[in-house]
Design goal:
298 residues, alpha+beta, Phosphorylase Kinase, domain 1, 2 domains, 11 helices
Length: 298
């Protein structure tokens, strides 16, 4: 608490004192909370010292999205990072949000438009120059030699997470073999070569905060890739209204083959959950098996 108050005071330029505490642990993979205060409250996320690189990558990713696309992201408190004796804090100005189950059609449209804005920013190469994280797992963003999407997706997304899931001991060997076969078949499965669009990188719906000013992006892991990756992620955990996709299409078309490829783009997330959550990820074991039946031998 003292370190958060110190950082907020530095950020404000005068003393800032917490006047209350709201626990948000049920909404995050890290312990987190909002500390109420004036003229702003502070969102604080707590991790072990080993999470510092992850938090720093999160800050860098949000800066990239704002700089490149001009979208709304949270304001870091002071530098955004506070090092404690045995932990690290990530601090942002708290956002006055509408909770996901209270979103309006306008809120969903704003998320679709933010994604469209991001995807109109392009690069000559897939990937980016900074390494990142997908949840707690390192994410290799280095471009690949031939700069083809199928090869980037196999070499930088599917195969590294497949190795991590296998090493965790939670992925059955037959499913590991099936995912490897899908990786080999990606040139036939991945559809038309996409333009290299700036991605949120973890665009599940709870990584957007709905505010009066518009949709604010949080927990991003950006790189340049296939725009369908974000579109497949936004309803990964729960359905979203069609208005989100309708708003997206106002600026960017969605290829008619996307529906057939949606589960192909979800493979890395399933693998990450299986690797990190173990027995809790049993639902994702079943979804991986479904994807293997669908894509491994078409």
């Amino acid at each position: 608490m003292a370190e958060i108050e110190r950082a907020a005071s530095e950020h404000l330029g005068r003393p800032w004192v917490s006047q209350g505490f709201t626990d948000l642990d049920d909404r995050s993979s890290h312990p987190c909370a909002i500390l109420q205060g004036q003229p702003f409250s502070v969102f604080a996320k707590l991790g072990p010292n080993t999470a510092r690189d992850q938090f720093e990558a999160e800050l860098n990713g949000l800066r990239l999205l704002t700089r490149a696309a001009g979208i709304l992201t949270p304001v870091p408190v002071a530098t955004g990072l506070v090092d404690l004796a045995e932990a690290t804090l990530l601090l942002f100005e708290a956002l006055p949000e509408r909770l996901p189950d209270q979103r309006t059609d306008h809120d969903w449209k704003q998320i679709g438009r933010v994604l469209a804005t991001l995807h109109q920013i392009t690069s000559p190469r897939f990937g980016q120059d900074r390494q990142g994280f997908f949840g707690p797992l390192p994410q290799d963003n280095r471009p690949v030699a031939d700069n083809r999407w199928a090869d980037f997706y196999a070499q930088r997304r599917i195969l590294p997470l497949l190795r991590t899931a296998v090493d965790s001991g939670h992925l059955p060997a037959d499913l590991a073999g099936g995912v490897a076969r899908i990786a080999e078949r990606l040139p036939d499965l991945a559809g038309p070569e996409p333009r290299r669009s700036l991605l949120h990188g973890d665009a599940q719906q709870n990584n957007f905060i709905s505010t009066a000013e518009g949709a604010v992006v949080i927990d991003a892991s950006p790189y340049f890739g296939h725009p369908e990756i974000d579109l497949a992620q936004v309803d990964f955990f729960d359905p979203v209204p069609t208005t989100l996709f309708d708003a997206y299409r106002e600026s960017v078309p969605i290829d008619k083959g996307f529906a057939d490829r949606r589960d192909l783009w979800r493979l890395p997330t399933h693998l990450a959950i299986v690797a990190v959550d173990g027995p809790i990820g049993q639902r994702h074991i079943a979804l991986l098996a479904d994807a293997i039946r669908r894509y491994a031998s078409i």
